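In the laboratory, one determines a bound structure by crystallizing the protein with its ligand and collecting diffraction data. In a computational setting the workflow is compressed into a single prediction: the sequence and the ligand go in, and a structural description comes out. We illustrate the idea with zinc ion.
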Amino acid sequence: MVTSAYWRTRLHRYRLVGNRCAVCGKAFFPPRLVCSYCGSTKLEECKLPERGRLVEYTVVYSAPKGYDVVVPYVVGIVELENGVRVVAQITDVDVNEVKEGMEVELTIRKLPEQLEGGMICYTYKFRPVIG
Ligand SMILES: [Zn+2]
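The predicted complex, in structure-token form:
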């Protein structure tokens, strides 16, 4: 990722900010320019729920080249409490204990990669809700 793209999208990734169609009410993440349900371009920024359920997942045993992360790790589709689906890494969980339907919550973590000038980057992940 280049520095300008990271900087432009940082608030969306730090706070899970998407947008909502002012006409039909559907919400999106990441934010869109056009509503895929009704075609409206009247979309308003909105903070998304920080909790949801893991709909599907896969365990990654071989990380992409240049993505220096400990394997295995879990990537899944999280359905937030308002129905918006987000693809994210699932963290703080043993890969053998991951289950479809488990309740998860947003957490912000440092990315393994750095940008130009050693800039440290953060992004969203989800972790199991304890208790
Ligand atoms: Zn719409």
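The pocket of zinc ion is lined by residues 21, 23-24, 26, 35, 37-38, 40 (CB under 6 Å). Keep in mind that any predicted model is a hypothesis to be tested, not a measurement.
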